[in-house]
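Re: Re: token formats

Sure, here are both.
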Amino acid sequence: MKRFYKEATVAETDNGFAVTLDGRTVRTPKGKALVLPRRALADAIAAEWNGQGEELDPAAMPMLRFANTVLDGVAPDPGAVAAAILRFGENDLLCYRAEERALAERQRAAWDPLLDWARQRWSAHLRVAGGIGPVDQNPDALEALREALRGYDPYTLAAIQVIAAITGSLVLALAVADRRLSPAAAFAASRLDEAWQAEKWGADAEAAARADNLAREMARAAALMDTMTGAAR
């Protein structure tokens, strides 16, 4: 699609901060006005629009994509989104340990402190098991994680969902949201098995490229969280 506007700006309204194109408020795919709760997020989205060339490139507007997702899909029913996120806690990556001793030791060193943090921070006592068989998690631990998710706004919930999906771990996603880990550190913690295999058999260029894309997506999700708090990492 060709660029159809001259300038994107931000207008303060009674409900927040609207992103406008030549004075007209941007709409989400479902027709909702793109009005954001934080000026920093609205400014970031306006900058994405202003950074477009003669041809629009939606892939270059990740903050707009996040905002559309929140306004159209998360904000109307945050409880349903939290329930979907909780499934990553039911089968959290950090609870599954390798049978190979050396890799299991590496997992223990990296993951046990995070599970200890989840117990201390959220009272979530998650069970750990070796192998790939399912772990029957303590219902009290899952309820503690559910309660933790209730404390986040829809924008942060959307970011948590992205990070949990990429890492396979709700604990890692919460650690990023709580600033216990940087997105890069959380991504590295989720890739211990892949790093182990690469050390043994060599790196695969295509797999490395996919990993780089996922790492960037995590960084963008963390940036969305930061716009809601006004704090830089």
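Second one below.
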Amino acid sequence: MSKAVIKINNLTKYYGKVKGCENVNLEVKAGEIYGFLGPNGAGKTTTIRVLLDFIRPTSGSANIFGLDVRRHSKEIGLRIGYVPTTIGLYKDMTGKEFLDYFGKFTGINKELRESLIKRFKLDLKKKIKYYSRGNQQKVAIIQAFQNNPDLLFLDEPTLGLDPLLQQEFYNLLSEFRSQGMTIFISSHNLPEMERLCDRIAIIKGGIIVDVTRVEDLRSSVVRKIEVNFTKPTNLESWAELGVYDVKNILEDFWHFKVKGDINPILKKLAEQEIKDLVITYPSLEEIFLEQYNDHA
């Protein structure tokens, strides 16, 4: 069994009378990519800030590498990387000056840093205030990786990156994960989470409402299917495959829903002559609503 890299026990944080998070319990295993999902104000950032020792909890405990995050924050800091959702870069520094500055606190693997600079095609001689949003995000990513950390915290890490750079970033995470890095990622991008994560925790109102594998979460929610057949087709017999809420919009144009395993439906559709087919996957918000209604 993999050793726990992050372990949180009954973590609670109040800002005066306002709840940030309450009785949060979660465990992240070594080499795992762990997702943390929830709408704004759900408690994600509060939890991450406690783990990074930016703020102190009201009660409860949190450990990283088996060390208390409060008593051993400096030691832990040398072994982690962090990409925040809001990048607070020093605008009058060049990219190199910024990376060198933060490298004083965490250390720098020069060979790794140079490879990342080339990989992301970043000009470090320019001042950060002249960088595009995407290039600022590149600086933040390189800063997080430059000490070759054992644990990486990512908060909406692909904001500002174009699709090609997003793909490159995904490849980077896959490579480092294969080398044993543990990754804790907060994102509202469900396809991104689905692609990257092993497990996710869903947080609502500061409370963890579910921890699940991504594929299990996907299979538990509803797909909406629109299909335009080339000839009249009767969908009444498809109910045994899990089809429901069937609507015949036009003579050969149907809307219906399916929950769970979609493969029987796809096999059935493959037997038909079809003009057009659209499968709408649920948005993250729809999944949240479904999960939240179950835990109201």
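The chain has a mean pLDDT of 87. The chain has two domains: 4-217, 220-294.
- S.
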